[in-house]
Each structure stands twice: as C-alpha cells, then as structure tokens.
Amino acid sequence: MAIEEAVVAQLAVEYWKLLRTVERAVSVASEDSRERLMSQARYAIVRFETILGEQKISIHEFEGYDFAVNLPVSPVNVDECSGDGDFIVERTIEPTIVCDTRVILRGKVLLARKT
Predict the structure, then answer these.
(1) Beta strand 96-99 with 102-105: parallel, antiparallel or unpaired?
(2) pLDDT at 47
(3) DSSP string of 25-87, one letter each residue
(4) Spatial CA neighbour of 65 closest among 13, 101, 112, 19
(5) Strand, helix or coil at 95?
(6) pLDDT (mean) for 68-78
(7) What span, in angstroms and rounded, lies between the C-alpha atoms of 1 and 76?
(8) How far apart are alpha carbons 17 and 94 in whole angstroms?
(9) 20 to 30 A Cα–Cα from 41, which one of 4, 22, 31, 32?
(10) For residue 106, what is the DSSP state?
(11) Following CA atoms 61, 66, 69, 73 in sequence, which dihedral angle do they give, to the nearest 10 degrees?
C-alpha cells in the first residue's frame, strides 16, 4: 500500500505537534510520574524518527536561524516584520518536512527582530 508523501508529511507535522504538547505536559507533571512519562516520550520520538527515516523523510526546525527568503518556511507574523533589519526564527510552529532533498511541506515559524 503506497501512501502519498504529502499525506505522510501532514501526519508527521501533526505527530510532531502532539509530541511537543506531551513534552510540555511532562514538564509540569508531578515528580513521581515525570520520569516514566519522559521515558515514554523519548521512545515515541525515536520510533517516530525511525519510521520517517525508513521513508527518507526528515523533519527540520529552524529556531535561532537567521531568516532568509530561501529558508523553507513561511513566517506567520510577516506583517509584523516589515521594514529594515534582520530577523531570526524565534519559534517553530510547524516543522519543515523534507523527503531526500525535496521540501514536501514548508514549515511555519514566528520571526523576531535580531538584536
């Protein structure tokens, strides 16, 4: 059964977002359950990366990168970032999905003025 790359890319983004939510939840969990939850999250991340790697799909985040037009992301706050000056990627909202060397799905990011 062949699944289109675009569908796998969309699933990868949604799973990535779910894992980020789990990481935030673990950080506020009680001390006695935190280690168990962290272990489960680490296992899920490794499995996720292994499955994507078997399909030659990778996930890319660009937090801290200097923003340039050739970066495979779409800024969600581009209207706030007009004028002169350099910008950096402050936060990844959705990662960029790449298969081999082709961008399948552009990421979404928040930009901040570089200081």
Answers:
(1) antiparallel
(2) 93
(3) HHHTS-HHHHHHHHHHHHHHHHHHHHHHHHTTEEEE--TTPBP-TTSSEEETTGGGS-SSS-E
(4) 112
(5) coil
(6) 92
(7) 35
(8) 7
(9) 4
(10) -
(11) 20
Q: Within 10 A of 107 (CB to CB), how many other CB atoms are there? A: 24
Q: Pairing relation of β-strands 73-75 and 96-99?
A: unpaired
The confidence score (pLDDT) of residue 2 equals 54
Q: Which residue has the tokens 């985040």?
A: 61
C-alpha–C-alpha distance, residues 61 and 91, integer Å = 9
Strands of the 87-94 sheet, one edge to the other: 73-75, 107-113, 87-94
CA angle 4, 20, 5 (to 5 degrees): 5
Query: Which two tokens mark 45?
Result: 């991340």
How many Å apart are CA 12 and CA 9, to the nearest integer? 5
pTM: 0.84
Count of alpha carbons within 13 angstroms of residue 63, beta-carbon side: 8
One-letter identity of residue 70: N
